[in-house]
Automatic annotation (TrEMBL), chain A:
It comes from Thalassotalea fonticola. Its cofactor is FMN; FAD. Belongs to the SoxB family. This is Sarcosine oxidase subunit beta. NCBIfam families: soxB. It comes from the Bacteria. It catalyses: sarcosine + (6S)-5,6,7,8-tetrahydrofolate + O2 = (6R)-5,10-methylene-5,6,7,8-tetrahydrofolate + glycine + H2O2; sarcosine + O2 + H2O = formaldehyde + glycine + H2O2. Gene3D superfamilies: D-Amino Acid Oxidase, subunit A, domain 2, FAD/NAD(P)-binding domain.
Automatic annotation (TrEMBL), chain B:
It comes from the Bacteria. This is Sarcosine oxidase subunit delta. Pfam families: SoxD (PF04267). It comes from Thalassotalea fonticola. NCBIfam families: soxD.
Length: 416, 99
């Protein structure tokens, strides 16, 4: 793999940038792999990368029915943070944030990772109590966090309407300075390139149609390019996890919903942090290109169409304009929907299953992007050792029968 | 925007008047103390999440405030029917060749 560097850029400029190496290869499927990963999104690619790098398993295929990073990874609002409430979730997301901090160097790929900080606004007394509780919980877990007053919030974001006359006045906020944003496509591409360099086969336009089993263990996957034998199969199919589970007669405690997001036309720099509000429900940041990236909610009903209801968009825009009256004449460029698989307790499933050699990483709901490196890292460990990584253990599928749920609705950001 | 026929009001109204209330036809177990943890978890948390026909419960929140059932395709969003609580759906997944 060619190293990207300033010198390389200069060198390639001499040949009009026509001789850059392909970022990843397009191999034909082998007959057998040690691990087959279903799903070529951020999580699947990160899992492949860490399996190859940390556990020395390089005979891996990542199977993607569309193209790499073309699913939910390309359909989120790029926010990275770790200010979750419960210990289990906090540790997992903080593990991920720590990996984010060195990831661009490690992958030798510009992820445009920017620790511009995240504000979570409070609009009611109860919001403020929840914020104080969450910031205290974060700090006890060694995660940075601060409670800001209205005046501090106003100083940080001058364009935010902090007046008392607002319909939902800003009473304060939680602030995580290490949080921020990353370029979502680049994350998938960076992991794909690094995994490819370690010998992982990235199979695009390959759709899994069935999972073959023998004596309670997986044998491999049926695809539209023929049968591929595998000792272990790891499913990272986000919104389609239930569909994959059905292939082996398994049911998962998931419901799939469309989650929408939208971007505006590009503006000059005006917002240098991420502003989220659970109460009025809207979150916004400005990308490096200048467009406002706005996140909306999920549809209340289940759906697999990659679009959402108009009333959800309307509700979100109302909230954003309420907070930022200055945006009222900004035009939206486009809106889109991704399919998120939500768990009853708003926490993911990273788990072995009762079928030997079959693993699931799913149920991230609205929070999967920020966890990409961390989830890939702990999931790779779980697959390689056939034992859950200590950080992944609380997220086992068994928690729904044992009752050890991790009720993360408050910190998840989007009601689901 | 879905246009939904409320079987009680007998009118087509816009989606915003309604709130979805999850999967329909879930029966509360009559013998909860005899259930195993697995059976109890199944009742509480495990829901059908089909790619295709789905029977779900809706509330006409800004109308008659009654719950009713709906058969809807989760891929095309086509509403096949709405029917009153206690009734059985006339369109079912097996008839459509789906499971």
């Amino acid at each position: 793999m060619q190293q990207y560097s300033g010198f390389g850029l200069l060198k390639h400029s001499l040949s009009y940038h026509e001789n850059w190496q392909r970022v990843w290869s397009n191999p034909t499927p082998k007959k057998h792999y040690d691990v087959v990963i279903i799903g070529g999104g951020g999580h699947g690619l990160a899992t492949a990368y860490y399996l190859a790098k940390e556990h020395g398993i390089t005979n891996i295929a990542v199977i993607e029915k569309g193209y790499l990073g073309g699913g939910n990874t390309a359909r989120n609002t790029t926010i990275v943070r770790s200010n979750y409430l419960w210990d289990e979730a906090s540790h997992l997301y903080e593990h991920s944030l720590k990996l984010w901090e060195g990831l661009a160097q490690e992958l030798n790929y510009n992820l445009m990772f920017s620790q511009r900080g995240v504000l979570n606004l409070g609009h009611t007394l109860q919001d403020m109590r929840d914020i104080e509780r969450r910031v205290n919980a974060n700090r006890l877990n060694g995660i940075d966090g601060e409670v800001l007053t209205t005046a501090q919030v106003q100083e940080m974001v001058p364009i935010l309407d902090c007046s008392k006359g607002a319909r939902y006045p800003v009473m304060g906020a939680s602030w995580q300075a290490r949080a921020g944003t990353a370029r979502h496509d680049a994350v998938a591409w960076g992991f794909a390139r690094a995994a490819d360099a370690l010998g992982v086969d990235l199979l695009q336009q390959t759709e899994v149609t069935g999972i073959r089993r023998k004596d309670g263990a997986v044998e491999g996957v049926e695809t539209n390019r023929g049968f591929i034998s595998a000792s272990k199969v790891a499913c990272v199919a986000a919104g389609n996890s239930s569909v994959i589970a059905k292939m082996v007669g398994m049911e998962l405690p998931l419901e799939s919903h469309p989650l929408q997001a939208m971007v505006s036309e590009p503006l000059k720099p005006i917002l240098d942090t991420v502003v989220m509000s659970n109460h009025v429900h809207g979150y916004v940041s400005q990308s490096d290109k200048g467009d406002l990236v706005i996140g909306a909610g999920i549809d209340g009903y289940t759906g697999y169409g990659q679009r959402g209801s108009f009333n959800v968009v309307e509700h979100t825009i109302a909230a954003i304009i309420e907070m930022f009256p200055i945006f009222s004449r900004v035009r939206l460029n486009r809106a889109w929907g991704g399919i998120v698989d939500t768990c009853p307790d708003a926490c993911p499933i990273i788990s072995k299953t009762h079928i030997k050699g079959l693993y699931f990483n799913c149920g991230w709901g609205t929070g999967g992007f920020k966890a990409t490196p961390g989830a890939g890292h702990v999931f790779a460990h779980t697959i390689a050792h056939d034992e859950p990584h200590p950080l992944a253990k609380p997220f086992s599928i068994d928690r729904f029968t044992s009752g050890e749920l991790i009720d993360e609705h408050g910190a998840a950001g989007v009601a689901h | 925007m879905l246009l939904i026929h409320c079987p009680y009001c007998e009118e087509m109204r816009e989606e915003e008047e309604f709130s979805p209330a999850g999967q329909a036809h879930i029966e509360r177990p009559l013998n909860p103390e005899e259930l195993s943890d697995e059976q109890w978890a199944r009742y509480l948390f495990f829901r059908k999440n089909p790619r295709g026909l789905h029977h779900e419960m809706w509330l006409h929140a800004a109308g008659c405030r009654k719950y009713f059932n709906m058969t809807r395709n989760t891929v095309t969003y086509q509403i096949m029917e709405t029917y009153k609580m206690g009734l059985k759906p006339s369109v079912t997944a097996s008839e459509e060749g789906q499971s």
